[in-house]
Specification:
By secondary structure, the chain is α/β, with parallel strands linked by helices. It has 14 helices and 23 strands. α2 packs antiparallel against α4.
């Protein structure tokens, strides 16, 4: 089996050992063998990025734009091939894998143009004869620590702006899904980048990630993952004065009011809660439903869940693929047991499924008769598990929706412009959806949340410059 190596200082490097990448739809399908970086490998990657930073920071915006555009063009041309790889290693249906690859391409093409649009300002000084300019400059070496649930889109929306604005990169993909990350870096390796500008170090967070956190030469870290790990990233960066950006999860509410279009509400809830196996930080895990529409909503949602096709990610017609691995599956099943013990009623699903191939298949689980104090409504499960919470009024729904430690995404189904407008203003979330699933965002606008979900400047869109650049104010005495 071909060994997929790390990429350090422009060279493919084997690493200390290797790990098989296994298809969660078919546990007998080994996608490939991927090198595991050692601490020494990570330190070498950081050193290469540091050495490359001065030259890369001085390249013209057009040079950077041309490289990013070329990456986007190749990703689009190979969307079916890379999308299939993504579906095999992560377990999301093939159509989602192709769409995610296309999104990664669009992100690179977008930031190719942003490289040309980075602006500064000239401001009149309060002192005569003095000119003031405010400009943005690259940070230097940026460490990117990415999750497994979007194995090419999230690396793209971190890496593309980092490069566009003149930074060098040390990239650690999720240990569970290295294939898409390797494919992306392989494209970048042929795109005309100087040695050391992009470095790929695959492996364990406790080894590779820790080396990045400890290094005084990593000027900033962008992290997406769990709350617990995010806290460690924040502490380590704060201790040595490095800039950091955290995206850590959600317990996202989706409100269904009595006046909602029932078909629209059910479609948005099922999509948001269960598509991509519920393994999205923006998934609607709390369905807050007003009393008059509650029973009809539950009945219709259960009917929709029964009709969902849960199967191999590459099979035609599959709507929900397997859970990503055995550890995540165990966590999902544990929370289903927790819900039962808390007194919630399992209206549908939550059962292990057998398919033609051995994989981590779980039927989407819907709890009813729950309240917002239950653990299943407080803690992020990150699987195909959602709960219905019955409320009597819009005011109660809003209160329940905001009663959470998280604040990433929220949604409401209603035909009332008054309630929609009020919810948009008063929802304590970074992203608000009206008559749409809570999951599913555009690539050219800000992404991020509040409270325990996010910390630091927003990702994506023009706001990405807030994290990946530093502001410099320069005063000149015109003698």
């Amino acid at each position: 089996m071909t060994l997929h190596k790390n990429f350090i200082n422009g060279e493919w490097v084997e690493g200390g050992n290797a790990k098989d990448n296994i298809n969660p739809s078919d546990l007998s399908d080994i996608i490939g063998s991927y090198a595991q970086a050692s601490q020494g490998d990570a330190e070498a990657a950081i050193a290469a990025a540091k050495a490359a930073a001065p030259q890369w920071s001085q390249t013209t915006p057009q040079q950077r734009a041309d490289i990013l555009e070329a990456v986007g063009v190749e990703l689009l041309a190979r969307k079916d091939e890379i999308g299939k790889l993504l579906a095999r290693e992560e377990g999301k249906p093939l159509g989602n894998g192709v769409a995610e690859t296309m999104r990664a391409a669009q992100i690179f093409k977008f930031f190719a143009q942003e490289a040309l649009r980075l602006e500064g300002v000239a401001i009149a000084s309060v002192r005569p004869g003095v000119d003031v300019t405010v400009t943005r400059e690259p940070l230097g070496v940026v460490g990117l620590i990415c999750p497994w649930n979007f194995p090419i889109a999230i690396p793209a929306w971190k890496m593309a702006p980092a490069l566009a604005f003149g930074n060098t990169v040390v990239f650690k993909p999720a240990d569970l899904v290295p294939g898409s990350a390797w494919a992306l870096v392989e494209i970048l390796s042929r795109a005309g980048l100087p040695k050391g500008v992009v470095n790929l170090v695959m492996g364990k967070g406790s080894v590779v990630g820790q080396a990045m956190l400890d290094s005084k030469d990593v000027n900033a870290i962008s992290f997406t993952g769990s709350v617990a790990t995010g806290a460690r990233v924040a502490q380590a960066c704060a201790m040595r004065g490095a800039k950091f950006q955290l995206e850590m999860g959600g317990k996202n509410p989706f409100i269904v009011l009595d006046d909602a279009n029932l078909d629209v509400a059910v479609a948005a809830a099922v999509d948001g809660a269960f598509y991509q196996t519920g393994q999205r930080c923006t998934a609607s895990s709390r369905l807050i439903v007003q009393s008059k529409i509650h029973d009809a909503f539950v009945t219709k949602t259960v009917e929709a869940l029964k009709a969902l096709k849960v199967d191999h990610a590459l099979k035609d017609g599959t709507q929900v693929g397997p859970v990503v691995d055995e550890n995540q599956l165990a966590q999902d099943l544990t929370y289903i047991d927790v819900g039962r013990h808390e007194g919630a009623e399992l209206a549908w699903g939550g059962e292990l499924l057998n398919r033609d191939t051995k994989g981590h298949y779980l039927s989407p689980a819907l709890f009813v008769n729950t309240d917002n104090k239950m653990r299943i409504n407080r803690e992020e499960i990150f699987g195909p598990v959602a709960s219905v919470i019955k409320v009597d009024s819009y005011e109660e729904a809003l209160s329940v929706a905001n009663d959470t430690a998280f604040g990433l995404s929220s949604g409401i189904a209603t035909s009332s412009l008054k309630h929609a407008t009020h919810f948009r203003r008063n929802s304590a979330a970074g992203m608000v959806m009206v008559n749409l699933p809570t999951a599913g965002v555009d690539y050219h606008v800000p992404f991020g949340g509040r409270k325990g979900s996010s910390y630091g400047p927003r990702e994506q869109g023009r706001h990405a410059a807030e994290f990946y650049t530093a502001i410099k104010t320069a005063y000149t005495n015109a003698l």
